[in-house]
Design a protein that fits this description.
The chain is α/β, with parallel strands linked by helices and 282 residues long. It contains twelve helices and five strands. Strands 2-3-1-4-5 form a five-stranded parallel β-sheet, with helices on both faces.
Length: 282
């Protein structure tokens, strides 16, 4: 069976960087681009309507001209090494019909990256978006994992200790905003997925928790899904350290006000239920 190319359909706070970094270290997989095709980055240098030709180029050649995000996200890549498939992560945007034409032309399987634990997804979003409002003791960057990757030894240990130390205040309006944002993101993904399915694109779902719990089993299942030999030796190396070693929810003071209190808990449970339904329908 011929291996299919792949696109991981993702959004923030879902572990996509760690996953694509690990996949880039597997024999036979070529990752030509990381976030250069995402709208926020692509639109800085190109007209939005040009996305289709660049998408086609990446899937045709396994390269993308002027891709500037590889060194900081991927394991070392030998561009002369033979490969069986091309794949990358992408926050899909544009015309579903045009995208589907390109995906079907290049035998692409779309893998929708999801977190099962809605509370952790919301709390991660809440902390990383509002960390420096919710506490003042430590300056927390939006993506602390990139800083952690670029330092080693005692400096890295001190940095991780500093990032893991703060506790965060609970502020209902910002918690609700974070919860609502994750619902909107998943709903938009759901709509795009349905349109791609209608055009014949192969869609499946993968879960961050599976990667976090057992990276080797996750990679083997991933290889099976795209039609590659999953009995080969698996490289479980990931260049990104998990900065937060405790559940995000445990670091928010009085989190129960948003999850179990009469009004806040009722709202959160309703949103959690709706999120779960969207996940089940993908």
């Amino acid at each position: 069976m011929t291996a299919s190319n792949f696109v991981i359909y993702y959004h923030s706070r879902e572990g996509s960087t760690a996953i694509i970094n690990t996949l880039s270290g597997q024999n036979g997989i070529r990752v030509p681009v990381v976030e250069d095709l995402d709208r926020y980055r692509f639109s800085k240098n190109h007209k939005v309507g040009e996305i289709y030709q660049y998408l086609d180029e990446a899937l045709s050649t396994g390269h993308l001209k002027n891709s500037d995000h590889q060194d900081s996200h991927l394991q070392s890549v030998d561009w002369n090494k033979p490969y069986q498939c091309i794949g990358f992560k992408w926050r899909i945007f544009g015309s579903p019909k045009k995208i589907a034409e390109i995906f079907n032309k290049h035998n692409v399987t779309v893998l929708v990256l999801t977190r099962r634990n809605f509370l952790e997804l919301v709390c991660s979003t809440y902390i990383h978006k509002y960390a420096n409002i919710l506490q003042r003791k430590v300056k927390v960057p939006t993506f602390p994992q990139f800083r952690a990757r670029n330092i080693t030894g005692e400096k890295q240990e001190a940095y991780l200790d500093m990032m893991r130390r703060p506790r965060f205040a609970f502020f209902w309006p910002l918690f609700f905003k974070s919860t609502y944002a994750r619902i909107i993101i998943k709903f938009r993904q759901y709509k795009m997925i349905n349109k791609l399915k209608a055009e014949g694109v192969k869609i499946t779902q993968i879960f961050y928790e599976d990667f976090d719990t057992n990276p080797e089993a996750f990679i083997r299942d991933f290889l099976d899904t795209i039609g590659m030999d999953s009995s080969v030796e698996i490289n479980t190396r990931c260049d990104f350290i998990k900065v937060h070693d405790q559940p995000h929810a445990s670091r928010i003071n009085r989190i129960e006000r948003g999850t179990t209190a009469p009004i806040g808990g009722w709202i959160f449970r309703r949103m959690n239920s709706y999120y779960d339904k969207l996940v089940d329908r993908i």
